[in-house]
Amino acid sequence: MKTSLFFFFFFCCSLSLLFCFHLPRVSSSAGVDRLKLPPRGWNSYDSFCWTISEDDFLTSAKVVAKYLKSHGYEYVVVDYLWYRRLVPGAYVESLGFDVIDQWGRMVPAPDRWPSAKSGKGFTEVAKEVHSLGLKFGIHVMRGLSRQAFDANTPILDITTGRAYKESGREWRAQDIGIKERSCAWMPHGFMSVNTSLPAGRAFLSSLYHQYAEWGVDFIKHDCVFGADFNLEEITYVSRVLKKLNRPILYSLSPGTSVTPTMAKELKGLANMYRVTADDWDSWGDVASHFDVARDFAKAEMVPGEGLLGNSWPDLDMLPLGWLTDQGVNRGPHRQCNLTLDEQRTQMTLWSMARSPLMFGGDVRKIDMTTYKLITNPTLLEINDYSSNNMEACEMSHLTRQSRISMLNRGSDHHHARGVGLTSCKDSNANGWSVESLDQYHEQICWREEGEQLNQEPLCLYKRKPLLASTNDHVLYGQDSRQLFTSDDGVKSCLDASPRHKITSREWKKQPSFSTCKGDANQQMWKLSSNATLRSSYSGLCVRVKQVKGTNDVRISGVRSWIATGRRGEIYVAFFNLNVEKTLISAKLSDMAKVLPGRNLEHKAACKGREVWSGQRYGAVGDPLEMVVEKHGCALFVLTCS
Asked: Which residues constitute the signal peptide according to the record (predicted)?
């Protein structure tokens, strides 16, 4: 069945941003300052998880240099746990297998990185990468490792080359580590450091100066953003990087709970920041990116002001080609699960949203289809140089099958409340208050502004805190349909951050609750005087919003994006989120109302082509239309007189 949908770009959308048509100066790729463009490169995580070796990495870098560098892919990045020995018993969650130096700093595991012996770190690897004309990047975690904390290592003073001393004593790891602020999804791995202490700042300085000495050009800083937001550490690290004698691109992760309001606090501090949870090769993960991409475009944050350049909302890596699985001790061993149409949809959305493009597949085994997709010249042109990028219209609808199901259910249609996290500066976080549960107990309840008193509020019970002060409240969710379901009757506690690395689809489905374990990630909740419920762990506040639901009814729909090119061309993308082919169309006369002065009312005013089908239009008809495959997309490049 084909569903015919007509997009009226002007009438169905409220667009506040007017299009401007100032054409940027065209320059050759050789002279481009890529700190002003969305970063592009290859990252080892999707294909190797944490197990990549020096030989595998350098072999991959040579492939990138030979086949991808000319297309702007200039960074090659070692993702996490490069300091972990690959020996029996070592895995993602293990403790005690990492290699640290005398100052408690992570260094490459010599069994995987043999050139790191004799204290060379990544120096030799970086030299080899630079000789290929590429830039070298590494993944690092927040603050201090649990292993260094347990060993209570001294702190290096980079100004003297000796142990840091202050107030007549030598400072050590346990003086600066905040064990209660361990990374929630890697609790045996890393914790925050106290940046209010000079010794804490000295430790961070020693870390990032060492990375610079190794020749690192790109740092992906993890467990400091989103639900793990640590603005103090980000700010200090950014200050250290800014004072170096050469630029280092600064990337932040992960992206759970990120909103434009939160990201605005990063102004001038970073170059790219994740706005989603981990993206893997499932359609649910891809589809979950449409809303967040729309929100950041609407907030006019593409690009924003960054560290020594621009900053870019990052939709995460592209898990295409030959991959591994999340959290395993295994390299690439399977093909991407996305269909070709779904891969095109992902690459087109990432490009229209001007996200950084970090390819994650095994470049040593890259197939021609994947290669042509990630090097498509139209997509890369859009990613680099387009402007006025926005979602032009969204129209969600029920497929015929779902509509029948809904009619059969009748009264099952309901409105649920979703619980998530946001910046405490977000006005939508205000609405919490204490209410009596019975004669002896209280609860924390959320009421919408203007909500009737006889309406049942969303409430969370209080539990006695174990670590927090008497003014802080540990909360767990009421066993209610609005918050969570529990088949075995076990209560779930409100989390400040996910307990493991999760995918975008998982975060969208269940962002905030897990089994009660009594750690700081669940205990450090405080009801503030401004009616916000704040986590002292992440500094974020709880937000509640209405979520329309129809039980198991499948909601689907279509999206469209529009952008302008540096030579005056117009890019129009149709995305079909349905499970069936859909005829999507747009009237030129309606597009003219948001593109003033383009003379789009006349049928012969535009000519162009559709990228994926190769179809060319001598004169674009009105409406512009195409049948789009399920989960697929159409991308038009129009030139109008």
From this structure: 1-20
DSSP state of 68: I
Q: What is the pLDDT of residues 464-484, one digit of tens each?
A: 443 333 333 434 343 332 333
**Over pLDDT 90: what percentage of the chain?**
61
Q: Are 385 and 343 in contact (CB under 8 A)?
A: no
Dihedral over alpha carbons 154, 155, 160, 162 (to 10 degrees): 10
Pairwise CA distance, residues 442 & 92, whole Å: 40
- Identify the three-state secondary structure at position 446: strand
Q: Which two tokens stand for residue 545?
A: 């919003």
Query: 495, 500, 539, 540: which is closest to 521 by C-alpha?
Result: 495
Three-state secondary structure string covering 101-131: CCCCCECCCCCCCHHHHHHCCCHHHHHHHHH
Q: Is the CB of residue 195 less than 8 Å from the CB of residue 208?
A: no
Contacts for 412 with CB less than 8 Å, ≥ 6 apart: 406, 550, 551
Dihedral sign, Cα of residue 10, residue 13, residue 15, residue 21: negative
The token duo for 119 is 């204290």
Structure tokens at 622: 């009105």
Q: Of 185-189, 335-339, 411-415, 565-569, where does mean pLDDT reach its minimum?
A: 411-415
Q: What dihedral angle (degrees, nearest 10) is formed by the CA atoms of 494, 498, 503, 506?
A: -20
Q: Which helix (DSSP H) or strand (DSSP E) does residue 285 occupy?
A: helix 283-287
- Rounded to 5 degrees, φ, ψ at 408 are -70, -30
Model confidence, pTM = 0.82
Residue 411: per-residue pLDDT: 35
Tell me the pairing of strands 474-477 and 458-463. Answer: antiparallel
Let me know: does 434 contact 441? Beta carbons within 8 Å: no
Give the residue from 346, 397, 396 showing the smallest Cα distance to 370: 346
Single out the residue of 481, 439, 485, 434 nearest to residue 460, CA to CA.
434
- Find the mean pLDDT for residues 181-201: 94
